[in-house]
Amino acid sequence: MTTARPTLDPELRELLADMPLMSQLSPEVLAQLRQLPSTPVEPLLAHRQVDRREVTVPAKDGAPIPLSVFSPANTDRTTAAPTPCIYWMHGGGMVMGDRFSQIDIPLEWLDEFGAVVVSVDYRLAPEATGTTLVDDCYQGLLWIAEHSAELGIDPARIVVAGASAGGGLAAGVTLLARDLRTPAIAAQMLICPMLDHRNTTTSSRQYSGGPGVWTREMNEFGWRAVLGDLTDNEVPEYVSPALADDLSGLPTTYIDTGSAEVFRDEDTDYATRIWADGGQAELHVWAGGFHGFDALYPQARISAAARQTRTAWLARLLLPDSAA
Fold first, then answer.
1. What is the DSSP letter of 152?
2. Of 1, 149, 167, 241, which is least surrounded by CB within 10 A?
3. In 3D, which of 96, 93, 89, 191 has the Cα closest to residue 144?
4. Where do the DSSP E strands lie in the chain?
């Protein structure tokens, strides 16, 4: 019996028709995908006045973690007012991608707010497992906070953001920073985040058994890769944030997802639980949106609306005295 699913946005359906889709991932397929060229960042910077800096910070085990820092050019950091910072974690199911994946999203906020954008190249599963990925991201956040004056960043306006697996890592980093009481995070921006390794929601079952942008089977592969031999009761909440019993004390949160994707229910549940614990969250479920629709097809009307809505939310947060 076929499980009923929400219909796709008509424009997205037409665009998706030309895209090759998979239903499962395997080690062999992953190896092939990893051989594809990285997202070229130079075309995204060509029309922008941006200074780019590449740094590495040590992981907890001493391994080098690359960070890319994008700052508005022609700014004297010694005299200019401190700017917001967007700390970006890329998507890719925790098994692929790099710090330039989906980087066009936070670069829009550099344009809009003069924000410094820092993107982290956390290590990937299955080579890295357990808390390694979230710990790598947390070490990058600590570096940003420690170097805020040098970077011209306002330490009170650091936003942790990510898409898909990066959204899950952003949520894990935010929980970790709360529990360790450092550094301060102004907000978390979770874009279709990968939050729950259990993969048992209604939306997870709806997007099983057929080709798609990200299916339940692909999700299972990603989680198996990062969890390794951990049993359910050994999985840390920083890795699978939906496990956290307490979501109080988190910074204001933005979550968006599509009605036609695997993560819909775990994402809406996360927002609901933040509210239940007295926190503030803004939730958007885009009707007919599949996983990562606005990153894959930013030209679609629904994608433009999703991006504009995020930017407007950030404007209210980062520029409270602005009419934006």
1. T
2. 1
3. 89
4. 50-58, 64-72, 83-89, 116-120, 153-163, 187-191, 252-258, 281-286
CA distance 322 to 113: 11
Just give the CATH number of 10-318: 3.40.50.1820
* Burial of residue 237 (number of CB atoms within 10 Å: 0-12, 13-18, 19+): middle
Segments making up each domain of the chain, as ranges: 10-318
Q: What are phi and psi of 215, to 5 degrees?
A: -100, 170
Instruction: Quote the Cα angle for 190-195-198, to 5°.
Output: 165
Rounded to two decimals, the pTM is 0.96
Which residues, in sequence order, are CB contacts of 169 under 8 Å at separation 6+? Answer: 89, 94, 122, 133, 134, 137, 162
Question: Of 130, 132, 135, 134, whose CA–CA distance to 227 is shortest?
Answer: 130
Single-letter residue type at 60? K
Cβ(279)–Cβ(178) below 8 Å: no
Give 53-80 pLDDT, tens digit per residue: 999 999 999 999 999 999 999 776 666 7
The three-class DSSP label of residue 192 is coil
Dump pLDDT digits (tens) for 259-302: 999 999 999 999 999 999 999 999 999 999 999 999 999 999 99
Main-chain phi, psi angles of 315, to 5 degrees = -60, -40
